[in-house]
Write a structure and sequence with these properties.
Blueprint lengths: L40 H22 L10 E7 L6 E8 L8 H11 L3 E10 L1 E3 H18 L3 E10 L1 H6 L9 E3 L4 E3 L11 H6 L24 H29 L1 H4 L2 H7 L4 E3 H7 L4 E2 L2 H11 L8 E6 L5 H5 L13 H8 L4 E3 L5 H4 L4
Parallel strand pairs: 2-3, 2-10, 3-5, 5-6, 5-7, 6-9
Antiparallel strand pairs: 1-10, 4-11, 7-8
Length: about 375
């Protein structure tokens, strides 16, 4: 009896033929998984790193072209557009009054900018209050001393009274005050505007019946009726205030114009409140050169011991008005009496002015 083979036999393993001694082994190909950058990955990574370093370098180099929000906006003026080191032009324009911080904000920007190597003060102003003029003189001097910055003054159409007072921040440097050919300057003096409206009120049967702790508390009131003795007494008190402020003005001129420090008679001859043309001012020693702002910039570069081709001259503009300013009424247009009662009361206070004007102070008390 024969035995049948199983229905599902297990196939015997096939033996691999052994290679003969002369047979060459077949090469095995191993497929590598593709990377994100392909065969140029390392090259692209190197290029990416170089690009990042370049961008960082450019950002650091040109970050001075950008201004912080709300701060004076830096703008190119002249000389090299590519230079890192700068000459900064700080502008003083219009009547110099308390409450306008634009000039001080420009000085603050210069103080924080280590690339500024010289300062040009561009003054186009008839002057202003004694206090505001002295405040700016102090901060210009302090900035130049702290940063060791050479200072040059460029006068615009008018640089009179308080404007000339601030120009004395140059101290005793040589050839640093430039006046344009058409500049008017000088007006060295002090004025306290005072008006007597008592006669006008009397004609309308209106009397000033103010109550004060002392009669001097109402000094300068335009509505107070005075007899000759009272008027002379009040004028004497105001004259003492004027004389003291005038004495300080002349001391400041002596510090900025050394030739007058040695000759009181020459100083008294020009400290009469008179306005001088640029030519007259040059002859009298009030200015050093007749020239435009470009000449002042070149002189600033010379004092900084720099080649003008390696410097960028910049100026500052007021920051743009934002929607937030408008909504909070911070950009209120100027009016004759100001925008509120506080402004009006501020105008009625007696003040001493380094100011060249024939208008009443209430009309000239506008911010530049």
């Amino acid at each position: 009896m024969s035995t049948l083979p199983p229905s599902n036999p297990t196939p015997a393993p096939m033996s691999q033929p052994e290679p003969t001694p002369n047979q060459t082994p077949q090469p095995q190909i191993v497929m590598q998984q593709a990377t994100a950058f392909g065969r140029y990955g390392k090259f692209l990574l190197i290029l990416l790193g170089f690009s990042v370093m370049t961008i960082i370098g450019l950002t650091s180099s040109y970050q001075s072209y950008f201004s912080p929000p709300g701060a004076p906006q830096e703008r190119y003026h002249s000389l090299s557009k590519e230079a890192d080191k700068k000459i900064a032009i700080v502008s003083i324009v219009g009547t110099i009054m308390e409450g306008n911080d634009f000039v001080k904000n420009q000085l603050d920007r210069v103080r924080k900018d280590d690339d500024v190597v010289a300062l040009v003060l561009r003054i186009d102003s008839p002057g202003g209050t004694v206090t505001a003029s002295d405040y700016l003189l102090h901060h210009v001097r302090k900035l130049c001393k702290d940063r060791e910055l050479p200072l040059v003054v460029s006068m615009g159409s008018i640089c009179a009274s308080g404007g000339y007072y601030i120009a004395m921040a140059v101290d005793n440097a040589e050839d640093v005050i430039f006046a344009e050919p058409s500049t008017w300057t000088g007006s060295i003096g002090v004025v306290i505007p005072r008006y007597d409206l008592s006669g006008l009120l009397a004609s309308h049967d209106i009397k000033d019946d103010s109550i004060a702790s002392h009669k001097y508390k109402l000094m300068g009131s335009p509505t107070r009726s005075l007899n000759d003795e009272e008027r002379a007494e009040e004028r004497k008190l105001f004259q003492d205030l004027v004389d003291e402020s005038f004495g300080r003005f002349k001391d400041i001129v002596r510090s900025g114009r050394p030739e007058f420090a040695k000759d009181d008679a020459a100083l008294d001859a020009i400290a009469t409140g008179q306005i001088f043309t640029a030519g007259q001012a040059l002859k009298k020693g009030l200015v050093d050169k007749i020239g435009f702002i470009e000449d002042a910039v070149q002189r600033a570069a010379e004092l900084a011991q720099r080649d003008p081709d390696t410097l960028r001259c910049i100026k500052y503009e007021e920051p743009p008005v934002t929607l937030g300013n408008l909504l909070t009424s911070q950009a209120t247009p100027p009016t004759l009496l100001g925008s509120d009662l506080r402004s009006f009361l501020n105008l009625t206070a007696p003040r001493a002015y380094y100011l060249c004007t024939w208008l009443p102070s209430i009309l000239s008390n506008s911010k530049p």
